[in-house]
């Protein structure tokens, strides 16, 4: 067990409360695509981008002679004070937060006095020509030093665009004074979703918001419900797994299988990212405990008054838990919900066995799942900053005996007299919770499904790369929990 002391000092690299990860869509112009079966010529690549609704003046052309990267780059016409600006305009996009990026250089400097790229946005307008509103200049990049070095230009997408729930085009104007050298550009990336219709680029992109919540129907998971707009998932894919030891404040045998609970959260939010509903699936997979333990969760910082109802739990009115009308526990600062009061009742051991699903020589017990739904008062809790999951066990039917994940604060009803006793090194003043004097946690959260230890088998004996991963500060074997050759001793794990 000493071998784990250094491992869980690093557990924050993996076991922090999982969050929904968002992949921002992008619209890209890099002159590298053409239609299947077409030859790879500059003209064909340019025809491809125009077919997907990129607009450009007639003096814009693709070339391999002065490319920045790949096979082709985009070149403007000759730029000087006497010529109209060359320009490129994107298809309609639904902008996202992030930076507009592009690589650019000047083809030469002989006689050149300046060169600039102007960044404009064009809003959608139902009454405008080609549905385009009045262009707005929001940034200008100018060459202050005239050379042919490639510049990496990065411009923030204006917040007004991201928050407007409107469609926009991004237009780049290329201007210059003196000489006749041109600007070469490549790898233009716009954070946002493609919203044009390639079959008719000049047509109305059909901005529709049926429920009037400010989110277009194409991006609204609930287009007919103004209170709901988005679905988020934690973990983003698949299920996570919680592992607990129940002899706190003692370390115990450290097989971390006294309760093994699978989970996945489905969060429904409004257009303004306020939580509407938290739908969670909790699956009790194993009980390696001789004690009668309950399982609950706290929503840190969410006042009970912000919850309107809780359904789907299996708590049979234990005397040590008092439930309010909205389904949360009374007398708490943060909302607490009891999912089940006794794991041994929910997943009873088979006849003649002491535990459920921790010994491969004993009959298998089918896991039990609960669909717990928490409804929130409208506009009360922001998903990005106000929703933190804090699942925990309640030991031996004693309300004050809570076992949380490493670093997670207890509820208002935890018995602080146990802190700092036996093997526990909890120090609320320092913000240290539920770790042992050897830095071991009593609860772990892995944001995916992995096997748990067999009865009375230390976890590091099953996961062979866990120790070197920790010793290297997370550099070696960041995938230590994956089922790769040499990563596990499956004889130490409960795998049927």
Short synopsis of the structure:
This protein has 496 residues and is mainly beta.
Notes on the protein architecture:
The protein has helices at about 40-50, 160, 345, 385, 465-470; strands at about 25-30, 55, 60-65, 75, 85-90, 95, 100-105, 115-125, 135-140, 150-155, 170-175, 185-195, 230-235, 240-245, 260-270, 275-285, 295-300, 305-310, 335-340, 370-375, 390-395, 400-405, 445. With about 500 residues, it is mainly beta. The strands form four sheets. Strands 1, 3, 4, 6, 7, 10 and 12 form a seven-stranded antiparallel sheet that branches. Strands 13, 14, 15, 16, 18, 20 and 23 form a seven-stranded antiparallel sheet that branches. Strands 2-5-11-8-9 form a five-stranded antiparallel sheet, with no helix packed on it. The two termini are about 25 Å apart. The relative contact order is 0.13.
Fold blueprint:
Layout: E1 26-29, H1 42-51, E2 55-56, E3 61-63, E4 73-75, E5 86-89, E6 93-95, E7 99-106, E8 114-123, E9 136-142, E10 151-156, H2 159-162, E11 168-177, E12 183-194, E13 230-234, E14 240-244, E15 259-269, E16 275-286, E17 294-299, E18 307-311, E19 335-340, H3 343-346, E20 368-376, H4 383-386, E21 389-394, E22 402-404, E23 443-446, H5 466-471
Antiparallel strand pairs: 1-12, 2-5, 3-4, 4-12, 5-11, 6-12, 7-10, 7-12, 8-9, 8-11, 13-15, 14-15, 14-23, 15-16, 16-20, 17-19, 17-21, 18-20, 21-22
């Amino acid at each position: 067990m000493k071998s784990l002391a250094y491992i869980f000092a690093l557990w924050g690299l993996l076991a922090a409360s999982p969050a929904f990860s968002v992949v921002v869509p992008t619209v890209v112009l890099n002159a590298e695509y053409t239609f299947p079966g077409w030859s790879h010529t500059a003209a064909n690549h340019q025809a491809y981008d125009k077919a997907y609704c990129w607009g450009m003046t007639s003096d814009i052309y693709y070339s391999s002679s002065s490319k920045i990267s790949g096979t082709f780059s985009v070149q403007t016409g000759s730029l000087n004070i006497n010529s109209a600006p060359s320009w490129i305009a994107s298809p309609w996009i639904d902008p996202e937060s992030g930076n507009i990026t592009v690589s650019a250089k000047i083809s030469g400097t002989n006689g050149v006095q300046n060169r600039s790229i102007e960044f404009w946005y064009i809003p959608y307008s139902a009454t405008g020509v080609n549905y385009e509103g009045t262009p707005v200049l929001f940034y200008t990049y100018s060459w202050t030093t005239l050379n042919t070095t490639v510049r990496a230009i990065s411009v923030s997408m204006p917040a007004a665009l991201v928050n407007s729930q409107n469609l926009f085009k991004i237009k780049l104007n290329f201007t210059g004074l003196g000489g006749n050298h041109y600007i070469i550009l490549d790898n233009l990336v716009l954070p946002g979703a493609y919203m044009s219709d390639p079959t008719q680029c000049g047509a109305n992109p059909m901005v529709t918001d049926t429920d009037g919540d400010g989110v277009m129907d194409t991006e609204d998971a609930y287009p007919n419900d103004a209170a709901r707009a988005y679905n988020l998932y934690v973990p983003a894919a698949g299920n996570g797994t919680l592992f607990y030891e129940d002899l706190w404040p003692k370390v115990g045998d450290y097989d971390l299988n006294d309760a093994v609970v699978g989970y996945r959260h489905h969060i429904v939010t409004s257009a303004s990212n306020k939580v509407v509903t938290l739908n969670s699936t909790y699956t009790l997979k194993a009980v390696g405990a001789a004690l009668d333990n309950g399982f609950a969760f706290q929503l840190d910082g969410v006042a009970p008054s912000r919850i309107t109802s809780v359904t789907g739990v299996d708590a049979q009115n234990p005397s040590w838990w008092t439930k309010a009308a909205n389904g949360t526990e009374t007398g708490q600062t943060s909302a607490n919900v009891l999912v089940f009061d006794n794991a041994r009742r929910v997943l009873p051991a088979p006849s003649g066995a002491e535990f459920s699903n921790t010994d491969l020589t004993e009959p298998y017990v089918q896991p039990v799942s609960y669909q717990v739904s928490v409804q929130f008062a409208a506009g009360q809790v922001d998903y990005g900053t106000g929703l933190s999951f804090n699942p925990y066990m309640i030991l031996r039917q004693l309300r004050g005996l809570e076992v949380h994940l490493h670093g997670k604060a207890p509820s208002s009803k935890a018995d602080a007299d146990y802190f700092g006793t036996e093997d526990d090194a909890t120090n609320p003043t320092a913000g240290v919770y539920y770790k042992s004097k050897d830095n071991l946690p009593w609860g772990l959260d892995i944001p995916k499904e992995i096997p748990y230890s067999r009865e009375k088998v230390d976890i590091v004996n099953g996961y062979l790369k866990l120790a070197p991963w920790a010793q290297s500060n997370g550099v070696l074997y960041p995938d230590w929990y994956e089922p790769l050759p040499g990563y596990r001793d499956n004889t130490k794990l409960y795998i049927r």
